[in-house]
Design brief:
The protein contains three helices and four strands. It is an alpha+beta fold.
Length: about 90
Amino acid sequence: MKVFVVFNAYVGSYEVSGRIGELKSIDGVKSVEAMERVAGEVPRYCLAFEIDDETAQKTGEKLKQTLGQYSSYMSNVVWGAYKKIG
């Protein structure tokens, strides 16, 4: 399953990408990719997570809890979980 979190941040790209190690250490997270917008009318940053389907609910809750620690640095936060259909 893939989880995408898009947001603006009151910190720079270095600080956003510097949190990847902490996010990768969450049980059930297979990979994390930090991306920065180059075009479009979307928030500046996107974190793309690949998580285990079997532990998706538990992992998702832990992701929300961890990202909540940084809520004072983030705005326009939206997230969604997607499963592969084709």
